[in-house]
Amino acid sequence: MSVALASILRVSSVEPDQSARGSAAAGDAASVCGVAAAGGVAPAGGDVLVSARGLTKTFGGFTAVDGIDVAVRRGEAFGFLGPNGAGKSSTMRMIAGVSPATSGELRVFGQDPASHGPAIRARLGNCPQADMLDEELTVQENLWIYGRYFGLTKAQTRERATELLEFAQLTDRRADKVEPLSGGMKRRLTIARSLINNPELLLLDEPTTGLDPQARHILWDRLFRLKRQGVTLIITTHYMDEAEQLCDRLVVMDRGRIAAEGSPRDLIARYSTREVVELRFDTDDHADHVDAVQGLVGASRVELLPDRLLVYTDDGDATSADLHARGVVPLSTLVRRSTLEDVFLHLTGRTLVD
Amino acid sequence: MSAAAGDGGRGGGGRGEGVDGVGGGIVKVGVAGRVARALPIPAGAGLARWVLARNLLAFRHGWVTLVSGFAEPVFYLFSLGVGIGALVHTVHTDGGSEVPYAVFVAPALLASSAMNGAIMDSTFNVFFKLRHAKLYDSMLATPIGPRDIAVGEIGWAVLRGALYSAAFLVVALLAGMVTSWWALLALPAAVLIGLAFAAIGMFATTYMTSWQHFDYITLAIQPMFLFSATFFPLSTYPEGIRWLVQATPLYHGVTLERGLMLGEVSSALAGHTAYLVVLGVIGALGAARRIERLLLT
């Protein structure tokens, strides 16, 4: 599979250095499936790159990840959606082999990160939340030396770096120091750097947090390309739009647990209605208006937020027409489609980003 | 630094396994794991040279620092050796011979410069990379393990120190302050001093959380520089505090260098060498273990 990936990335001549990549790659796929099947957490079909059962991480008395079950198949874009502190980053660090699990079972490429850390890390790309670029080096030196950390040869690293600079749209900045680059550029360089070893699996922890909208869209475009090229992506985010855009399948995490799992569309269908009517009233406390909007046509549920009411309905227009017929006049009325934010709100009673 | 029993299995058995050993299977992990439980050896993947190479790459952008590292001990040599030497003339060494003051002090300055070079790199620079640049976090996302980082960083500090020492030796030789062929071993000895201090310096740095903590380093280095039989022989000190002088690592470095450069070679030099080697090994293992504890949480 690395050959296919390489050819798509137009680096067919750069075969991963066997000594660096380890030799246990494909052979263990069978055992992975075995493990996953036994656990009953593997989705049907595809070979499973990451499987976790009862995965737990505690820091002192604090439980960051509380016994989660997850399986990620080759080629999919998998998301961890949840607010800050939900346990997403802790999970990612365990998968990346830089944080030992407290208990439970974790397999990445069929191997245990506790005993095969270097071999696993050789095959994955890791984009942590902070860029952590080497600011004493230039843009291209960052790529060159990173390839060497993976044990790649100089020729392999140089060739790959040239392609990745193109991919990250940084070719004309290659000889510049890292420090003056914009946030979006640094993020793209971090992603490019994490691709230096031609990884089968790319971990992206909050990839667009802190970027302006334009930089986010450029980054999404790059991630789409990787996905099309067959790289398996695992993304954490607290942006529901990002999760909807990028993820084939995701889990909603809250307080270290998985609250729900499915494709974005599945989750919306399962946990929300088709549409939502957002109502804002001229009031200090929206709770005063909850009774007035109960039992509207098509509506199934009302959710109270500090600044607005959300009426969940199968037909937003009919619902708002009924509201007008009752003589209730909000400051503003917005009819929109349900999003993952609504799913999260329904599952946890809280909004994603406060 | 509690014993390795708790996480030694992960440390040595896991990461210590290395990238090449992946295919080896369960038996190797088991043996390595047992060894790791017995010895607190944190994991590496044999990639330390790339940590060192990274420093070389960064150093190309800041080679000016090389000049200052070389200049300092040379300035000392001329101000103390030649300046003070004009007043003091000769000194009776602990080895029993009488030599000009400059000849007496030159080996001590060589040892001190090896110490200073190693300490500068393994404390300030390591602290910056560890706490601010997050360089080691990004390295640990690759097959590189904590042992690779410790070995690579200490190796780099030793390499830099060796450059300074070699340049200093050339100057001392040209100035006529080298009197014995044993001085050929002065450079390897300086490398050993650099190793001991770089390793201990890096180990200590992993416990620091703010720049203020560097005052402790200064507090340890300054008196050692002045009172490790550097500028006057051990016999000058009152009997009661000689043991204190002899306990310091720099004393062993100075005495080793002095013995070699003056040709006063005895079996005691083996003891000084052993002291420095033990210090280096403890420091390197401790630094690697601490990096594992701090970053692989």
Strand content of chain A: 15-25%
Mean pLDDT of chain B: 84
Total count of strands of chain A? 13
Note the run of SSEs of chain A as H and E.
Answer: HHHEEEHEHEHHHEHEHEEHEEEHEH
Give the end-to-end Cα distance of chain B, rounded to a whole number of Å. Answer: 15 Å
Instruction: Tell me the count of domains of chain A.
Output: 2
CATH architecture of the largest domain in chain A: 3-Layer(aba) Sandwich
**Helix-residue proportion of chain B:** over 70%
How are the strands of the largest sheet of chain A arranged? 5-6-7-3-8-9
State the major sheet of chain B.
2 strands, antiparallel
Subunit organisation of the chains: heterodimer
Note the overall shape of chain A: elongated
What form of chain B results from the Cα inertia axes? Answer: elongated
Give Rg of chain B in angstroms.
21 Å
The SSE order of chain B reads HHHHEEHHHHHHHH
By DSSP (H or I, 4+ residues per run), the number of helices of chain A equals: 13
- How many domain modules of chain B? 2
